[in-house]
Structures are given as structure tokens and as C-alpha cells.
Amino acid sequence: HVAGLGLAAALAVSGWYCPLTYLEVWLRGRQAPGAGYGGSFIIHYVEKLIYIDVSPAVLSALTVLLIAGNVWLYLRAAFRKKATARRRP
């Protein structure tokens, strides 16, 4: 584990990519010249998950649903708190 941490720290400080990234790009290039990619493994794959291609209308609808759900939860909690306070002598 210490060796892995040391390698990760050295890669982060030096700005290099993991050696497996270079190997993957090389192997992809040998299999299909257009299949390779430049840069980091993380950027190539994880960026697609973080920055998904969604229309602004869908994002707006999801935002409204999230806000409505939060309002409903807060109102429900407030009404329960009032109901509990009324029952106590």
C-alpha cells in the first residue's frame, strides 16, 4: 500500500498519467488507430458520467421536481411537529 501511495503521489506531483493509461492507449491504437484517446483514463471515462448529455428542459423539470420534493418533506415535517406539540399536555 505504501508503494502504491508513493507512486500515486509521484504521478500527481509530476503531472504524469498512470502507466496503465499509456498501455491502454497504445493497445487501443494497435487494435484500431482511431480508437485511442489522448489524456487521462479518468477524464476519458468519468467525464462522460459527470457531464451527461441532457437537454435543458429535462434538467429544468428535474430541478422543479427536486424543489417540490424538498418543500413537501419540510412541510410534512412541520405539520408532524405541530401535531405532536398539540397532543402534549
Descriptors:
single chain; 89 residues; mainly alpha; 4 helices; 76% helix
Please give a quick description of this structure.
With 89 residues, the protein is mostly helical. Helix content is 76%, strand content 0%. The N and C termini lie far apart (60 Å).
- First-residue to last-residue Cα separation: 60 Å
In total, the number of strands is 0
Encode the helix/strand succession as letters.
HHHH
What's the gyration radius in Å? 25 Å
**Low confidence ranges:** none
Number of helices: 4
**How much helicity do the residues have?**
over 70%
- CA-based shape: elongated
Mean pLDDT: 83
Structural class: mainly alpha
Q: What is the beta-strand fraction?
A: under 5%
Description:
There is one protein chain. The chain is mostly helical and 89 residues long. The protein contains four helices and no strands. The chain has helices at 2-14, 19-31, 41-50, 56-87. It is elongated. The model has no long low-confidence stretch (mean pLDDT 83).
